[in-house]
Amino acid sequence: MEKKTCLNCGAPLQGRSDKKFCDDQCRNNYNYKQYADNSNFIRRINHKIKKNRNILESFIPSGEDMAKTTKDRLLREGFDFQYQTHTIETKKGSIYHFCYDYGYLPLDGDWYLIVRRKEN
Hints:
This is DUF2116 family Zn-ribbon domain-containing protein. This protein is of the alpha+beta class.
């Protein structure tokens, strides 16, 4: 009969035939390792999207819903155009890129219109 070992530390297992871990700590460590890479990947992306949102928010004056800025200014603040939550296409065909409730519309000459989406 083949001796079963702990999936985390490799120690021989005793007890139930379907046992996979020698104790709760090994079970927790194993599961943490299994999900840590995915969680870290998602956490990094969410951090970038939140940073983009905060940068967009910083360009809109208090009490206003929109402002204009240049691509260079966005990049200097650390904006990463690769990360967004969604896009919205208007009836006129303009495509706004959003990071949650703040978005931008590319304009001519490296200018961008920054907007705050109003709740419906």
